[in-house]
Write a structure and sequence with these properties.
Structural class: mainly beta
Number of domains: 1
Shape: globular
CATH topology: ATP Synthase, domain 1
Protein name: ATP synthase epsilon chain
Strand content: over 45%
CATH class: Mainly Beta
Radius of gyration: 12 Å
Keywords: ATP synthesis, Cell membrane, CF(1), Hydrogen ion transport, Ion transport, Membrane, Transport
Largest sheet: 9 strands, mixed
CATH architecture: Sandwich
Membrane topology: Peripheral membrane protein
Subcellular location: Cell membrane
CATH superfamily: F0F1 ATP synthase delta/epsilon subunit, N-terminal
Number of strands: 9
Number of helices: 0
GO molecular function, one term: ATP binding
Helix content: under 10%
Order of helices and strands: EEEEEEEEE
């Protein structure tokens, strides 16, 4: 089964990294959902909630203050100005 390799980082530290089946984020033009096989994308993020559905383990979610999201070849990189986590999302 295909998966996404996700890196969620704030300006000062890595927040979460791992394999996921889905990512949703507050893109500048509206909410965006990323699944495996998504076409390449670069988007500005507005303030809102990031949600990651890991392949294994509990859902990860947090609030970002802005930043950007990049998708390429099943790799999702989210770079946020700041992140406040809603769940225990220690780096793996």
């Amino acid at each position: 089964m295909a998966h996404l390799d996700v890196d969620l980082v704030a300006a000062d530290r890595k927040i979460w990294s791992g394999e996921a089946s889905m990512v949703s984020a507050p893109a500048a033009d509206g909410e965006i959902g990323i699944l495996p096989g998504h076409s390449p994308l670069l988007s500005v993020l507005r303030a809102g909630e990031i949600r990651v559905t890991p392949v294994s383990g509990a859902h990860v979610s947090g609030t970002v203050a802005g930043g950007f999201l990049s998708v390429d070849a099943n790799r999702v990189t989210i770079v946020a100005d700041s992140v406040t986590m809603s769940t225990d999302a220690a780096s793996r």
